[in-house]
Structures are given as structure tokens and as C-alpha cells.
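Quick start: read one record
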Amino acid sequence: MRGYNSTWDLIDALERAGELVRITAEVDPELEITEIATRVMRAYGPALLFENVRGSKVPLLINAYGSNRRMCMALGAASFDEISERITSLIDIKPPASFKDALKMLPHVAQVRKFPPRTARTAACQEVVYRGPDVDLAMFPIIKCWPEDGGRFITLPQVITRNPDTGAQNLGMYRMQVIDRNTTFLHSQTHHDTARHLRMYRERGVTRVPCAVAIGGASVATYAATAPMPPELDEWILAGFLREEPVELVKAIESDLRVPAEADIVLEGYIDLDDYRLEGPFGDHTGFYTLKDDYPTFHITAITTRRRPVYCTTIVGQPPKEDYFLGKATERIFLNILKKTVPEIVDMNLPIFGVFHNFCFVSIRKEYPFHARKVMYALWGLGQMSLTKYIVVVDSDVDVQNTDTVLFHVGANVDPERDMQFVYGPIDVLDHASTMSGHGSKVGIDATRKWKSEGFAREWPKELEMTPGMIDKVSSRWAEYGLPPELKGQADAARRGVLLERDANSGGGRIGSIASGDAQIGS
């Protein structure tokens, strides 16, 4: 098995690797944990296990996925490329019709079919059962993240609902504001699968929708809840494939939903479609507060836990934060599948400052006039990539992971009137700049070299570049010049267009994320 079967297994592995710090001092779940974790995340620091959170006997784990190295540990891989190669090696080399079509191939491949979820008769997640008056969310160290938040929020849940037509379960991640001891909101935005399930139930006149929420468990579980899977494709199949062993699910104690057997905590109940209330505000991954809006309530009728549960949580806000690395894993793992849909793509980066939906930098092999515009429209047609406000297209020799290099070519190669393509359509509902919620303008910027066949009559100048022979000569004589050796390393990295903070082990990369599927960690 790849990865770790339980939260405690992951904690032990992180501690052995020097990737975790235990905090025994008493801390307040309101704001104090956020301030501590924010400082650690800004420094690309370790996972934190708070063992003494005021008001709760349950320890709290945060930032467990907050670096490239820890993400790879959780997924049981040496690198994201390793996982990407495993997935793409299973898919027919012919380009599928769409990104989701490519993913739909996965369950039909023999190696993936070996890992459907197994049904367990007993499960660690049901060692302790709370019902009736014993159901009380106050037993867990649920945090209030930011000063003007509407309350405490569960921020790392694995939300499970079922399609009323097919019976297929969906696993997603949506923030949940605590209302009282047994009620929360469920913030599933309209374009996500759970919201689609809710619409389907309402059309059938059903207003109480069975729902279960798992927290913690197998180290692939949290990632699986954020992965960009097509509707009706079980995320647990992906989880089983990633860890090369089926995930065990168990029947919930109060419904027919199946929940992960190794979870630390499971909340069971129903979403009440007749009970919408104003949720929020919430300090979001955009760096701003999301304003109040109507969302349905989730009524908890039972809670089950392990005997020694861990409460897993995260915070969002102006990056870097933990969700950046969850998203980075998706970008790198599924990039090769995206290339099968848009084969001219060389590389892609949703940079950290773009908070998932604002910027997309993409390099292409340009083969014909206005090829960059074709790629823009292709990307705007792919799932949540349709929400991207700014798409910048550059030539194949431009390193899109180096944001300074991309912006250099925007400044050098773009005539604003000629090379900017404005379109209108859906955008992220968290975008406060748009005139209408969820709808506004987007722009594609063609920063490729311009051809005569594109109407560019002038001669395009050659970019400055030193001869390879001189580069090798200076490198070989560096010590003779009496210059510090570390300066040579820094200069070489800059010449290659590689940012020094892109060390995969430190997690300080400049690589963004494809915020696809049902990932709404703070949204």
C-alpha cells in the first residue's frame, strides 16, 4: 500500500521525517491557531499537531499537506510525475474528446478496476457512537479562522452525497459553518456535483437529502475529495488506485451511504432543502472575506469516531496556504491528461498569487496563425478552467513556472489592442470584482511571437542569448575569477529560468493548481 492508512500513521511518518511539530501549550481555537499556522505556512514550515486545544480533548492536525514533500508522502509517491506517469500510461494514446472523457477511461482500465472500494463489516470510524442529546460538535476543536468570520468552520471535510437516479456517491470538499451543537451550513456552490445532487432531489420533491461527512482517515482521502473527477466516477476508485489498495468503506449507521472505515470522525445526517439561511462571512482563499449568502443547512443526527480521533483542519487566505499544495498536486498529476485533450500544451502554471482562478500561464507549440486563441478557448471549455479570468499563452521555450519570465514576455510581445481577447461567461462566485455574482469578463493574452501570417508585417527581433561555448567556458573558469561558488549556482539557476524557491522538498514552489472537481477547501 502507498501512503498511510490512518491519520495517526501519517502523523508518525511525518514526525519520523522531521516534518511535524507537536505543540503541547494550550491554544485557543478562535484565531490563535490561525495566526500560528499562518506564520508557519508563510515560512513553508512543518505540519502542526496541537495536543491541547482549549475546550476539547481531541488533538488538532493542520498543515499536514502543506509542502510538496508532504503531499508526495501522503500519496505514497516519490514525485507527482511518478503518479502522472502511472495514470497516463493506462490511457489510450489517442487524444480523448475532453479532459473528463480522459478521466472516464480510468475505471475501464484493468489496473484501475482492481481497486474499487471494499465493504467492511466493522470499522475504526464507528468505535464510538453518539446519538440524540450526545451529538455535540463542541467536542471537537473546530476553529474560527479570521476575526470577521461568521463563526467556526469545518474546513477539511469529505462530504458524501448520492445521485438519486444512479445511486452513485460523490465525494467533495465544502466548508461547513457551525450553527449550533448539531447543525452546520453546507457551502456547495452551484457548479459542483453535490449542488447538482441537491437540485435533482428537489425536482423529485425530496427535501431531506442523506449526507455524511468524514474527517481524516487514509492519507489519500482528503486529496481524493479535491480531485477533478467527472460526475458519477467514484473518487474512491482514484484513491484506491493511488494507494494501490482498495479503500475500505462501511455502511453508515443511519443511512445507506458508505463512509470511509478509517476516518477519524464521521458526521451523519441530512441536508434540509427547506432550511436555507445566510452563511458567512468567511475569510477565503482569495485573501478577502466572502460575503453572506444563502446556503442549505446540514442537520447531524449521529456522530461516530475512532477511540482516539484526530481533528484535521486547515485555514485559507492570502497564499501560501495548505490548499495551494493540494491544488499543486492536481496540476502536476493531471497535466499529462490535459495535454491529451489539448496536445499543443507544453506546460501550465496557475501561479500562487492567482488564488486558483485568477491567472493561468500556459506554453504551447505554436503551429499556425492565432493558435494561442484556440488554446484559450479550449481551456475555457474545461470544467472549472472556465472560471479563469486571465489566460496568458506563451511559446514553448518560455518557462511558465518562472512568473517573472512570463511577465517579461507579456511586456515584450503583446500589443494590448491586438493581442488581448475579451470574453464573457461564468466566473468564480467568490470574485468580488465582477458586476454580477458568478458572471463577468475574462481575457486571454497572446504573448507568443507574432508571425507575418497573423498580420504582423514587421520583422520580429531575436531574443538575446549567449553562445553555449561561452557559457561552458565561464562555468569551467568560475573558480579562477575568485567569485563565490554559491553565486555561480544562483546565476546558473536564474539563467535557466528556475526560481530558487522551487525546491520540491521545501514546498516553496511557484507552481499553482488546477482547482477542479469538488475542491472548495475554503470556498
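The domain at 7-312 is CATH 2.30.110.10 (Pnp Oxidase; Chain A).
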